[in-house]
C-alpha cells in the first residue's frame, strides 16, 4: 500500500527532513524540502511544491494539495492546511492558515498571516491579502478578496463531497498508480474510470434550481 509513497524524493536542509505519513500519497513529481509535515490520508498532487526551507509547512490529516500548488512562508512562520482542507490546482499559500474543511479555489493566492476560517471557500483566482481573516462558512472572491456572503448547506455539502473524492483518490493512487509505458493505440472498447458522479458547483446549482 505504501509503495507509491516510497518513490517520493524529499530533500533535507539544515538537518531537517520532510515527514510523510505512510497513508498519505505524494506524487513523485512533487517537491518536499526541509520542515514539511504531511499527515494521514493526505493527497499531494503532481508538481506541487512544499518548501520548508524558511518556515514550517504543515498539511494535516485528510487534506489535499492539488497539481502545481505552492506552500512557503517566511522564517518563524507556519504555513498550515488543517484537517480536510482542499487546495485547488495552482493555488499559492504563503505564511497563512487554512482552517478545517476550508477550500481554496484554483489559482487563488492566500498571503502572509491571513486565516481562511473553518468551512470557508476562497473563490478561484481570488487574492486574499496579508492579514485578512475570512470568517467561517463564508465565500470570498475578487482581487483583493472580499466577503461575498454566507455559504449555503448545499455548497458546504458539495465541498465535503469533493474533499472525500480526493481522500478516495489517495487510496486509489497508493493501490493502483504505477509508472508504465504508454500504449500505441486505444484498446477496443476502452473503459472509463468508473466513479460516482461529482458535478461542478455551477452544474449542481442549475440541477437543483
Classify the helix fraction into a percent range.
10-25%
Span of the ends, CA to CA? 42 Å
H/E element order: EEEEEEEEEEEEEEEEEEEEHH
Count of alpha/pi helices: 2
Sheet/helix structural class: alpha/beta
Radius of gyration: 18 Å
Strand content: 25-35%
Largest sheet: 12 strands, parallel
Task: Please explain how this structure is put together.
There is one protein chain. This protein has helices at 153-176, 201-208; strands at residues 10-11, 19-20, 25-26, 31-38, 43-44, 49-59, 64-65, 70-72, 78-81, 86-87, 92-94, 97-98, 103-104, 109-110, 115-116, 121-122, 127-128, 133-134, 138-141, 146-150. It is an alpha/beta fold and 209 residues long. The strands form two sheets. Strands 1, 2, 4, 6, 8, 9, 11, 12, 14, 15, 17 and 18 form a twelve-stranded parallel beta sheet that branches. It has an eight-stranded mixed beta sheet with strand order 3-5-7-10-13-16-19-20.
Which helices and strands, and how do they pair?
Layout: E1 10-11, E2 19-20, E3 25-26, E4 31-38, E5 43-44, E6 49-59, E7 64-65, E8 70-72, E9 78-81, E10 86-87, E11 92-94, E12 97-98, E13 103-104, E14 109-110, E15 115-116, E16 121-122, E17 127-128, E18 133-134, E19 138-141, E20 146-150, H1 153-176, H2 201-208
Parallel strand pairs: 1-4, 2-4, 3-5, 4-6, 5-7, 6-8, 6-9, 7-10, 8-11, 9-12, 10-13, 11-14, 12-15, 13-16, 14-17, 15-18, 16-19
Antiparallel strand pairs: 19-20
Search tags:
209 residues; alpha/beta; twelve-stranded parallel β-sheet; eight-stranded mixed β-sheet; 2 helices; 20 strands; flat
